[in-house]
TrEMBL record:
Pathway: Polyol metabolism; myo-inositol degradation into acetyl-CoA; acetyl-CoA from myo-inositol: step 2/7. HAMAP family: IolE (MF_01672). The keyword Flavoprotein does not apply. The keyword Cell division does not apply. Coiled coil: none annotated. Its EC number is 4.2.1.44. Its cofactor is glutathione; Co(2+); Mn(2+). This is Inosose dehydratase. The lineage of its organism: Bacteria, Bacillati, Bacillota, Bacilli, Bacillales.
C-alpha cells in the first residue's frame, strides 16, 4: 500500500452516532481493541470516545492506533457564522491535540439524514443561491481557522444533504478556494446517490485529502429509493456494508489512489446494525479484501 497511505476504521460499525440503539452494548474499549485486532492503525471518533486528549491517547497508543479525523456538523446555512466558528474551534483544538491533520466537515443546515420519516431521495435539500453563498463563504472561513493549526478541512458530501450529487460537488469545488477547502472522497455515498466514484476521484484528486471506503448492497439501496425510505431506514435495512461485501469494485479506485501517490488516510466505514453484521467480523473482512487486492497485483 505504500507509506503514504494509512488504513483506518470508523467506529460507526460498533456504535451508531445517529441511532445510539445500534450497538448500544458495544463498549469503547471493545471497539478500538477489535479495530487493532483486525489490523487497522487509525480510527475516527465515535460518541463513546473520551474527549480528554490525554485519556484518549493512552487508550489508543497501547493499541497502536492514531486519530485520523472526526466529523464536524456545520450549520453555515442556518446559524450565525460566529456560532459555527466557536464550535469549530473547540473541535479543531481537540483534533489538533490528538495529532490529526484533517477535519471532516458536513453541512447539516436543512439536512434530512437524521430524520427517520423523511424520504431520502424525494425530499433531499437543495440550496438556493443565497444559501450557497453563505455555505461556501463559511467553509472558507473554517478552512482559515484550520490553517491556523496547520490543518485542513475536508468536506464530506453526504446522502440527504445539500452536497450529495456530482453537480453539487462540482458547484462546491468551483465556488471555494482550493487552499481553504479540500474534499473527502466517500465511495458509498457517491454510489448510493447514483454518481460515478472514479469520475469524482479523477476530477478532484488534487483536492482530496481524506478517503472513506464504504460499499453498497445494490438491492437494498434500490429498495430505499423505490420505497421512499429515509436515510436512517436505509441504514437499518443494510444499504451500507464494508468493501468487498457489496457492489463496488475497489480495485480500480485503489489503483488510481496508489498510482497517483495519494497521501493520507483511507478509512473503512459502514454503518450497519452490529447485532446483524458483527462489527469485528466485517472490519476484518474489509481488511482482508483490501489486502487481497494489493497481493493479487491489481494495484501497481
Amino acid at each position: 500500500m505504500g507509506n503514504q497511505i494509512k488504513l483506518g476504521c470508523a467506529p460507526i460499525a460498533w456504535t451508531n452516532d445517529d441511532m445510539p440503539e445500534l450497538g448500544r452494548n458495544n463498549s469503547f474499549e471493545q471497539c478500538i481493541s477489535e479495530m487493532a485486532l483486525a489490523g487497522y492503525t487509525g480510527t475516527e471518533i465515535g460518541n463513546k470516545y473520551p474527549r480528554d486528549p490525554e485519556v484518549l491517547k493512552h487508550y489508543l497508543d497501547i493499541r497502536g492506533l492514531e486519530v485520523a479525523s472526526a466529523w464536524f456538523s456545520s450549520f453555515l446555512t442556518t446559524q450565525p457564522l460566529e456560532e459555527v466558528k466557536a464550535d469549530f474551534i473547540e473541535h479543531r483544538d481537540f483534533l489538533y491535540a490528538m495529532g490529526a491533520e484533517v477535519i471532516v466537515v458536513s453541512e447539516q443546515g436543512s439536512s434530512i439524514q437524521g430524520q427517520v420519516d423523511t424520504p431520502l431521495f424525494a425530499e433531499k435539500p437543495v440550496f438556493n443561491e443565497k444559501e450557497w453563498k453563505r455555505f461556501t463563504d463559511g467553509l472558507e472561513a473554517l478552512g482559515e481557522l484550520a490553517a491556523e493549526k496547520g490543518m485542513s478541512i475536508v468536506y464530506h458530501h453526504h446522502m440527504g444533504t445539500g452536497v450529495q450529487t456530482t453537480e453539487e460537488i462540482d458547484q462546491l469545488m468551483s465556488s471555494t478556494d482550493p487552499d481553504k477547502v479540500s474534499l473527502l472522497f466517500d465511495t458509498g455515498h457517491l454510489v448510493f446517490s447514483g454518481e460515478d466514484p472514479l469520475e469524482i476521484l479523477e476530477k478532484y484528486f488534487d483536492r482530496i485529502k481524506h478517503v472513506h471506503f464504504k460499499d453498497i448492497r445494490r438491492n437494498i439501496a434500490a429498495a430505499v429509493r423505490r420505497e421512499q425510505d429515509s436515510f436512517l431506514t436505509g441504514v437499518k435495512k443494510g444499504a451500507f456494508t464494508v468493501p468487498g461485501d457489496g457492489m463496488i469494485d475497489f480495485a480500480p479506485i485503489m489503483n488510481y489512489l496508489t498510482r497517483h501517490h495519494y497521501s493520507g488516510w483511507i478509512v473503512v466505514e459502514a454503518e450497519q446494525d452490529p447485532d446483524v453484521c458483527n462489527a469485528f467480523e466485517y472490519a476484518l473482512k474489509a481488511k482482508r479484501y483490501i489486502d487481497e487486492i494489493l497481493q493479487k497485483g491489481k494495484v501497481r
